[in-house]
Amino acid sequence: MRGSLHSIGQQLLGPPGRRRMRVQQTLLGMPALLLMQILLLVEHRVSGAALGELGWYAAITWSGCAVFYGLVRSGWSERLSAEASLSLPQMAFAMGCVAWAYWLAGPLRPALLLLMPLTLSFGVFALDDRRVRTLSALGIVGVGGVVALRLPAQAAWPDVALDLSMWLFTAVTLASIGVLARRLARMRERLRAQKSELRDALERIQLLATRDALTGLLNRRAMMEQLQTLARSRQPMTLALADLDRFKQINDEHGHAVGDRVLQAFGQRAQQMFGESGLVARWGGEEFLFAMPHADETLLRMLLEQLRSTLAGSAHEGLPVSVRIGFSAGVARCHALTDLEEAIERADQAMYRAKVAGRGCTSSLAVVQDPAREPA
Ligand SMILES: Nc1nc2c(ncn2[C@@H]2O[C@H](COP(=O)(O)OP(=O)(O)OP(=O)(O)O)[C@@H](O)[C@H]2O)c(=O)[nH]1
């Protein structure tokens, strides 16, 4: 029994997600509608009045509910309106139902008007303040109209006073909700602005924490994190450690600012060449680490040679023509997380071997060896 009730509920609401939330919102007003109709029925029964108009009321209001439910549950509302929950028409409809019930009701009618501000208060969360105020005006005019229409039929002064005061209190309450909605809208705007400021600040912090300020490449810590993630997922990769050749000389001859521009030029070219298929980081002063997942040593060596000839063959903006950018590199393979530190160490030693071998070349070591004892 519980199982079948559960599955009916699931069918009624649909699969979990945003649409289901909209369906739940649509169903929310139905208990209130049912309650209103019970109240009207009781009143009519007690007073012995004819039920004719009540039948129309029930038929039209429930048909309206069924249409809204069908549109939202089927997803048609998503195609029909940018506001897929159809909150505005649903609330306008609900307020119309309350006003009509007020018209039909007898002495218990003041209770019905409580549903007006209740409906509008849902709108404060679902709609923008302009729409809430439109609904509020609609409610005031709607109840006012019903009260005005009832006046000629009122026999006694207390009934007229009751209707007018009910309208007055409803108007004040609905107008207050409209004001409240405006305040809430301003608060939401402030929150939205703060949220976007926070997001920007977070992006800036992330950039500062993960990027090298001079070259814009990944910094050592961020690179290490990325390499650990790759190694943890058991992706074999080839690493290369590159060190600019005779960089101190560039600094000494042309000044530190030119040295900085050389680092930037190298970083830019390296990123252009490796950024799509691999990772490049500024590892230290004039050292850069390259990583290519799934690539073999031959491919990485080939790309390094391309980088070398690009750097040698092109003029660099903002740099004296006499400045030549060259580098020595060491290559090593990494197969697992436990191998990572050692692979970087091997690449470092291989790079040192390339320096010893005369610079401007790439070297590799199969195992950790003492480069001083084993020249290239
Ligand atoms: N302009 C500049 N220089 C830097 C930066 N970081 C490190 N350096 C310089 O890089 C130079 C590295 O010099 P060395 O380690 O002797 O290496 P090298 O001159 O490239 O010689 P080899 O590596 O043997 O070819 C030092 O003079 C550092 O001051 C930086 O951010 N900007």
TrEMBL record:
Residues 181-211 form a coiled coil. GO terms for molecular function: diguanylate cyclase activity. Keywords: Coiled coil, Membrane, Transmembrane, Transmembrane helix. Residues 235-367 form the GGDEF domain. One of its GO terms (biological process) is cell adhesion involved in single-species biofilm formation. It comes from the Bacteria. Pfam families: GGDEF (PF00990). CDD domains: GGDEF. This is diguanylate cyclase. InterPro entries: Diguanylate_Cyclase (IPR050469), GGDEF_dom (IPR000160), Nucleotide_cyclase (IPR029787), Rev_trsase/Diguanyl_cyclase (IPR043128). It catalyses: 2 GTP = 3',3'-c-di-GMP + 2 diphosphate. Its EC number is 2.7.7.65.
